[in-house]
Specification:
CATH architecture of the largest domain: 3-Layer(aba) Sandwich
Helix content: 40-55%
Strand content: 5-15%
Structural class: alpha/beta
Radius of gyration: 24 Å
Oligomer: single chain
Distance between the termini: 43 Å
Shape: globular
CATH superfamily of the largest domain: EreA-like (biosynthetic domain)
């Protein structure tokens, strides 16, 4: 496969700028002295670059270059362009299991609640009946959007991970949740773990946690209480005499958990994860009242998600390796997209900054058209929705126009400087809430893909998840 060189790029862009005559010959993949630039290259520089670098795939064997690239990385970030697309789950599973079977993989961290994922980990570690995985997912992933993890594709991954662990008991593949929703469940889990491991300290921990726990499962009630308190004392000169925020009490709970659960067994890691979740929930809700910047609210979730991931990685040891399954918006380096312009950070950025770029492999996904599962609004029933063709000149449309149907690209660092990437074409991002009719107004994130990812996997047409 011919790699385009810097010299050829210079020739290419000079040729375009001078409006030189175009050749009518088609590219044949060989260097020919009498036609250094073909018609397609002179008219479409991204296509010229792309046809040199895109690698078609249909099987896991075709993805061997990605697995080789990942073989010496500590953290492999496996993204998705939506939360409801079948192929993203399937290929993330294939890559994760191949890494586990090959160079080794110690854990997969999911964009999911830690208390729900605990049941999935118990399953892959051999607990329960092998044919009960669907029932397990229905029972434990019961918070909207249930389909994100209660689906047939994730169930199949867990079955295969269980089989892998039975064959590799000395280095099992563990499953963790690293999202920071479900704070009320985390409070309950922390109290239960303290009762089990440190009954003498359990009342003290419960007292700290109750500052937030008293507001109930709806954490919005804490934000509303802060809002009402703030406005009730507006205009008064005297010091605020109302109840303080829970910031100090939750920090005390966090510090106590870190002290009590400092070992590296699963339950100790789980306890520390729950402490991050509770602290993040308090911070996130308080920031909505005390800060008007939307980036503050986003970062109050993004930073602890990375801190939890790094906590797991550190606990597993210096030679540990983990994979993270989350949306592209969490795993592609925020600095290479509009997110960075808005002072938003994410796991992709923080992991590169903390571990070093050579320790992280960021794999993004893209699709041109298909179907997806999403809700019309938050909490709405799931719907199977059509994903329209990528809008003109978006990254998704450019990949479709200039490459084979399903392909991947491994970026080099110098690719970040290419003019057509520095212009940051929009990449589609579909969340759990989606309206296909309005996606052109808000579903495309301006992106330099070569800086945002190390690898980009493109799927021409995708299908919806199979919810349980």
């Amino acid at each position: 496969m011919r790699i385009i060189t810097p010299a050829l790029l210079v020739m290419l862009f000079t040729f375009i700028a001078c409006d030189g005559p175009s050749s009518t010959a088609e590219a044949d993949g060989e260097n020919q002295q009498d036609q250094p630039v073909v018609q397609r290259e002179s008219e479409d520089p991204i296509a010229a670059w792309h046809q040199q670098r895109a690698r078609e795939f249909s099987t896991l064997d075709d993805l061997a270059p990605i697995l080789e690239k990942a073989s010496d990385r500590r953290l492999i970030l496996l993204g998705e362009a939506s939360h409801g697309t079948r192929e993203y789950y399937q290929w993330r599973a294939e890559l994760s299991l191949a890494l586990a079977d090959g160079p080794g993989l110690d854990f997969v961290a999911l964009e999911a609640d830690a208390h729900s994922v605990r049941a999935a980990d118990q399953y892959v570690m051999g607990q329960g009946e092998a044919d009960e995985v669907e029932d397990l997912l229905r029972e434990h992933f019961d918070r909207w959007p249930q389909w994100m993890w209660a689906n047939a594709e994730f169930a199949e991954f867990l079955r295969n991970a269980r089989a892998h662990n039975q064959e590799n008991p000395s280095r099992p593949l563990r499953i963790y949740g690293m999202d920071v929703f479900g704070f009320y469940d985390s409070i309950g889990q922390l109290n239960a773990l303290a009762d089990q491991y440190h009954p003498d300290q359990a009342p003290k921990l419960a007292g700290h946690l109750n500052c937030l726990g008293q507001y109930g499962r709806d954490r919005e009630s804490y934000a509303r209480a802060l809002h009402n308190r703030r406005h009730s004392h507006r205009g008064h000169d005297h010091q605020d005499s109302g109840e303080p925020t829970c910031e100090a009490e939750i920090q005390r709970a966090f510090d106590l958990v870190m002290e009590l659960f400092s070992e590296n067994g699963y339950d100790h890691i789980l306890a520390r994860t729950h402490a991050h979740v509770v602290r993040a929930a308090e911070n996130q809700q308080r920031s909505r009242i005390t800060h008007g910047n939307p980036a503050t609210h986003w970062n109050a979730r993004a930073r602890p998600m990375y801190e939890i991931t790094e906590e797991i990685l550190t606990a597993k040891g210096d030679d540990a390796r983990g994979a993270v399954w989350a949306h592209n918006t969490h795993l592609g380096d925020a600095r290479a997209s509009r997110m960075g312009d808005q002072d938003q950070v994410n796991i992709g950025q923080l992991s590169r900054e903390s571990l070093g770029e050579d320790a992280v492999l960021s794999v993004g996904f893209s699709t041109y058209e298909g179907r997806v599962i999403a809700g019309a609004q938050w909490g709405a029933p799931l719907e199977i929705m059509e994903v329209p063709k990528g809008k003109e000149d978006s990254l998704d449309e450019l990949l479709h126009r200039s490459g084979p149907s399903n392909h991947f690209v491994i970026f080099e660092k110098e690719d970040r400087e290419l003019p057509f990437f520095q212009e940051r074409p929009g990449q589609r991002a579909i969340g759990v809430v989606y309206n296909p009719a309005r996606e052109r107004f808000g579903n495309y994130v301006p992106t330099n893909p070569a800086a945002r990812y190390d690898v980009l996997i493109f799927l021409a047409e995708t299908e919806e998840l199979n919810p349980l």
